[in-house]
Amino acid sequence: MPCCDDGKLVVEPKNGCLPIIIPGNDPFYSDKVECIRFVRSSPAMDIGLNYKEMQQINQNTAFIDASHVYGSNDIVADYVRTKSGGRLKTSDNDDTGKPMPPFGGHLTDAPACPKAIEDGAPKCPITLEKDCFLAGDVRIDMVPGLIVIHTAFIRFHNIIAYQLSSFNTNWDDETIYQETRRIVGALFQLITYRDWLPILLGDKVMNDYNLNVASGGYSKTYNPVVIPTIRNVFATAAFRFGHSLPGDILKAAEKKDDFNQTFHFFDTCIIQKAKTSPSSMLKGLARCPMEPFDTVVGSALRDRLFERPAGPENDPPQPGLDLLSLNLMRGRDHGIPAYPKWREFCGLPPVEKFKQLKKAMGKKIAKKFKKTYNGKIKDIDLFAAGLAEKPLPDGILGPTFSCIIALQFKWLKHGDRFWYESKEQPKPFTPDQLRALRQTSLASILCKVTEGLYKFQKNPFLTTDVPGNDVMDCSNHKFIDLSHWQE
């Protein structure tokens, strides 16, 4: 719908158009735009036909099931498959000749890319040289780093599918695809909970919320009473913590090839060049430390999100957006309660007075919140305060975000009937298969799918200066042993 298109206010906005008005003293936007486009989320009923509370639609699957690879609905899931040998579609159009995601996706056609399916592939919004990529998640084209991750897991799927078909020549396409998808989904769960979540939350929170995965045997995880649905506060506030972490510069294999991501949103062309190919970008990401978790956000996301220069066919330039303002507005749109309410929900010390706020986030930042919210602590937005809280001793996040995120991951684990460790699921992994999964590392997967990668650190989520996270030859990173799937 028309809503602050090109940064200009709509005279008679339609219901749902709720633009963010730019004040005259804004240091960045005031001489560029009048407003920032914001459209309210589509409403949905709460679980159990609760008519008292309005919720919003989640277009993705709630579970940790690698839906970014396979899609969250039947149309996408069917379209990304070759229907031969259990493989996923790829294209071979980068300078290295290695498999890339298939062409045919576009953000405005989410989630099923109907134009790609019905009318042929649309062009990228930045350049007409290349088409956009298609994957299980429509956000694949947003930033080059996402394209790299999607590419890695598409390649990984096809390697597994090929090996399974070699071991089991009698398996048809459907059997190979479903078993490969099951393996990839299991490893995605394992890597998330074993290698990434402890870094984010710390050991104490992992233990307090029973989030650790078993090192051997089966684990009785499933509880049919647990509702795994993604909670609104998780999606709309807490899990957006990551917007504080990226820097403006994306690193490639060689420092001279590093580039500013401000100019490469929705740019699928750069990732197809040898100097900034998925292999080069992966090496760069591995050596790129995150920015500190705090209220400071890089210009690429704060002022210039999705900024676009004038197009080749006299298309006008598109001013950038402010992701933090959008996050705050989205929280209000969804009715997310204010920060003090979530402190209470998590059983944390209350924040009702300025003195308590200083203890939670420090004197300097607390004074800024007091000024911004006119001394009304009860009105402070959760997203903003969550970024400002002092981190827990052994994690990255503060206590409120840690609580909300830990609860969500607990529900996702214990509410998943198909959790990889569970013996009660319809088709559990055998003990040998579970052992093979646990011996597999993300480093081994990245080594396998990335050309020219001969060494990698033990845990790709940590930089090499972390004690024990040494760089190892790829031959020493154990890849999954698929002989345990041979019938």
UniProtKB/TrEMBL annotation:
<keyword id="KW-0408">Iron</keyword>
<dbReference type="GO" id="GO:0006979">
    <property type="term" value="P:response to oxidative stress"/>
</dbReference>
<keyword id="KW-0349">Heme</keyword>
<keyword id="KW-0732">Signal</keyword>
<dbReference type="GO" id="GO:0005576">
    <property type="term" value="C:extracellular region"/>
</dbReference>
<protein>
    <recommendedName>
        <fullName>Peroxidase</fullName>
    </recommendedName>
</protein>
<dbReference type="GO" id="GO:0046872">
    <property type="term" value="F:metal ion binding"/>
</dbReference>
<dbReference type="InterPro" id="IPR019791">
    <property type="entry name" value="Haem_peroxidase_animal"/>
</dbReference>
<keyword id="KW-0325">Glycoprotein</keyword>
<keyword id="KW-0964">Secreted</keyword>
<feature type="binding site" description="axial binding residue">
    <location>
        <position position="243"/>
    </location>
    <ligand>
        <name>heme b</name>
    </ligand>
</feature>
<dbReference type="InterPro" id="IPR010255">
    <property type="entry name" value="Haem_peroxidase_sf"/>
</dbReference>
<keyword id="KW-0575">Peroxidase</keyword>
<dbReference type="InterPro" id="IPR037120">
    <property type="entry name" value="Haem_peroxidase_sf_animal"/>
</dbReference>
<keyword id="KW-0479">Metal-binding</keyword>
<dbReference type="GO" id="GO:0020037">
    <property type="term" value="F:heme binding"/>
</dbReference>
<dbReference type="GO" id="GO:0004601">
    <property type="term" value="F:peroxidase activity"/>
</dbReference>
<keyword id="KW-0560">Oxidoreductase</keyword>
<dbReference type="Pfam" id="PF03098">
    <property type="entry name" value="An_peroxidase"/>
</dbReference>
